[in-house]
Request: fold
Amino acid sequence: MSRIYLKTPTIEELNYRQDWMKDPKTMSYNVGFDMDLKGYDKNTGTITKTKEEMIDWYNNWIGKEPDKYFAYIYDNSIEEPIGEVYYYLDDNVYSMGIVIQDKYRGKGYSYDALLELEKIAFEKNNINELSDIVPLNRIGAIKSFKKAGFIHTELEKIVLVFGKENIAKQLLITKDMYFNNKRR
Reply:
């Protein structure tokens, strides 16, 4: 049995996500990117949203499977969520992401959560692939993705971080890859 599980939040539980997005330690991976996103602070990586904006986001995401999926990550022994996973259909590609709250990083939760997300995407929602574009300097994230069966593809893009160019490459797992090398 897995030590974690995924659960779609209720609208009353949006405060967890809202708090994480305002936490500079949790959002440190986001620092310096040139993003045109309302509420984004380039110097801290944080994103500030009003309660109304969070409700609009919720209504746009929750219950939209299979094209959108969002869930909190829970450790079986901790009552509050420790992070979040999601995917969404964007130009015929299912882009995904994972955020672990700062105080829970480095404990293997990303790997466990990726396995659970793969199970939902491929077994429950029957999508064909998941991918993320990850800067090459995010070594811990890349390690978790690869352990969970993702591979680097040839697709790369240049992302600007504080005006400097950084290479980010696509990490991808397909439904066939998942079923051919199922980890659970």
Observations:
- The two ends are 9 Å apart (CA to CA).
- Helices lie at 14-21, 51-61, 109-124, 139-147, 175-180.
- The mean pLDDT is 93.
- The beta strands are 4-7, 68-75, 83-90, 93-100, 129-135, 151-161, 164-174.
